[in-house]
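Let's study a protein:

===
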Amino acid sequence: MASKKLEFKNGQFVVYPTQGVGKVVRVEEQNIGGQKITLLVIDFERNKMTLRVPVDRAEISGLRPLVTNKKMNEAIESAKGRAGIKRMIWSRRAAQYEENINSGDLMRLAEVVRDLQRRNATDQMTFSARGLYLRALERMAQEYAVLHRLDLDEASEKIEEIIGVPKEIDLNAVEEDDPEEQEEET
């Protein structure tokens, strides 16, 4: 089965699996090893990085356009679900989560977010689990932010709000005294 060739334009947002969302800034031709090669120049502003991908290798590299709003909503619904069975030792699960994060596939990112999110405000997370969760959430939020014209932090908060991740408990917060109670004490 022949696959359709992906077309990318200047100014288009794209997803590169290991870097997240970037913007095609131009298409250029370079002479490399005596061959003329057409390259997509992609700027990843967040990572302060520019990547050049040969047009004929774009699909093989996993480069893809942003998902639709419908696909994003499906991924968020998936992230709301029950966590998958965790019968593997952590190092293998962590490697699998890392692979899912670097796949560039939104549904696989949603699986990582689903499996690693805190279910209530008192849940504890290991340092490595928290790092994986935050990276997966950030990759989802990058696409969500572009689709909904939000900044990355707003997009992350919105996704967590939709999937029902509890807010952090501020252990340093001091409950303020009620002024009426103070009057009764005097």
Observations:
- The beta strands are 13-16, 20-32, 35-44, 49-54, 64-65.
- The first strand starts at residue 13 and ends at 16.
